[in-house]
Amino acid sequence: MTTNRSNLLRLLPALVCAATVGTAAQSGPDLSGTWLLDTYLSDSPAQAAAVIRLGVGQGGGNRIFGGDEPEGGRSGRGGGGYGRRGPQRQPQGGQEKPPSLEEQNRLDELTKGVRYPATTLTISQSGDAISLGEGQEKRTLTASGKREKISIGQNEVNTTTRWEGPLLVSEADFGKGIRMITTYGLAPTKQLVVKVRFERGLGETGPFEIKYVYDRSS
Question: What CATH number labels 28-216?
Answer without folding.
Answer: 2.40.128.20
